[in-house]
Design goal:
Layout (H helix, E strand, L loop, with lengths): L3 H29 L1 H5 L10 E4 L6 H11 L6 E3 L1 E2 L5 H6 L7 H11 L7 E2 L4 E2 L2 H15 L3 E6 L4 H11 L6 E6 L14 H18 L5
Parallel strand pairs: 1-2, 1-6, 2-4, 3-5, 6-7
Length: about 220
């Protein structure tokens, strides 16, 4: 009996080492593929509208314009972001400040999108979950069945979760589309400070959404 003890001990150590190596390997694999996990995208299909999420004035608007001009949908919806702090004070002093949606509207017009094809809901949004609520209300009212949602590549996973959670129980389908005019690289996201910051900021927000929060 005594001679078998070292054997069992060695077996246990090898098992622990194997599990540790497996955990390290899984961690490395997850780290490398984190960018692809966030950049979930759907195949394009004909839709009733293209929703351009707030957050950028140019890159997402460019993608929305391209999709419209390519004939994927007959209208573009622009999401309105919260105005910058201090805007009421500017207005009180007679200074006109053009909001993000208004600037994006102007960009679309310059890109050849007809004014009647551009829709701007009145709601102001502080997060993606609020944008999803607006889309549900608008799509239900207009009788839309499918909407292409344009956002940044690193934001697609969280946006998809927020919109599909809000649209659960309806027949409304969303197709997530990245803008091709931002150079986030999911296969090498750890090599550039901008991409690292995007991923680090995105993960806790995605976790909050999964936990049922509307952060």
């Amino acid at each position: 009996m005594p001679p078998s003890t070292p054997i069992r001990g060695g077996t246990r150590r090898r098992a622990i080492l194997a599990l540790l190596l497996l955990a390290i390997g899984c961690g490395i694999y997850g780290f490398i593929n984190l960018g692809f996990f966030l950049a979930q995208e759907d195949e394009l299909q004909p839709a009733d509208a293209i929703l351009v999420l707030s957050g950028t004035t140019i890159s997402r608007a460019l993608e929305g314009a391209d999709l419209y001009l390519e004939g994927h949908a007959p209208r573009i919806v622009l999401s309105q972001d919260q105005p910058p702090i201090g805007m009421p004070e500017l207005a009180a002093r007679g200074i006109l400040f053009v909001t993000g949606a208004s600037r994006t509207h102007w960009v679309l017009l310059q890109l050849g999108i007809p004014d009647q094809a551009i829709l701007i809901p009145e709601q102001i949004h502080g997060n993606t979950a609020a944008e999803a609520i607006t889309l549900r209300e608008m799509a239900t009212r207009e009788g839309w069945n499918r909407v292409i949602v344009v956002s940044s590549r690193y934001h697609l996973r969280r946006a998809a979760f927020a919109f599909r959670r809000e649209l659960r129980g309806t027949e409304i389908q969303v197709l997530m589309r990245r803008t091709r005019y931002e150079n986030f690289e999911p296969d090498q996201w750890w090599r550039r400070r901008r991409d690292i910051r995007a991923v680090v900021e995105e993960m806790p927000r995605l976790a909050a959404y999964v936990l049922g929060l509307r952060a």
